[in-house]
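Feature request, filed as a ticket because there's no other form

It would be nice if the structure record came with a short human-readable summary line next to the tokens. Right now we just get the raw output. Example of a typical job, pasted below so the devs can see what we mean:
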Amino acid sequence: MDAVPASLPPEAAADLPRVDPVDLPDDALIVDVRDAADYRAGHAPGALSIPVGQLASRLDEVRALAASLGKPLAVSCGGGTKQLRATAYLRENGVDAAVLRGGMRGWKSGGRPVATD
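Raw output as currently delivered:
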């Protein structure tokens, strides 16, 4: 199992599906790929914390969750490139995933609730 790529060509990033935070139902599965400290500081309620460096080793877990959903899962970071790389990786490995537009910044600016640990 290959690791999540360190970079993503711009054309590949542009082709990734995206979902707006306001369009997600409250029970949507969001995989948050930020480090644990950033996750604890504020995340979407119910989001699953899987730092991008652990994504390859937890791929089977994500596959099982995605299969049980029957709909795409959203991938979030702070709003940068980690979510793009993680989404591309998941899609290449058979997971129906979409980029959460704007990441947690987009989530917060959309007026969505934020949980802290």
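Something like this underneath would help us a lot:
The two ends are 31 Å apart (CA to CA).
The longest strand covers residues 73-76.
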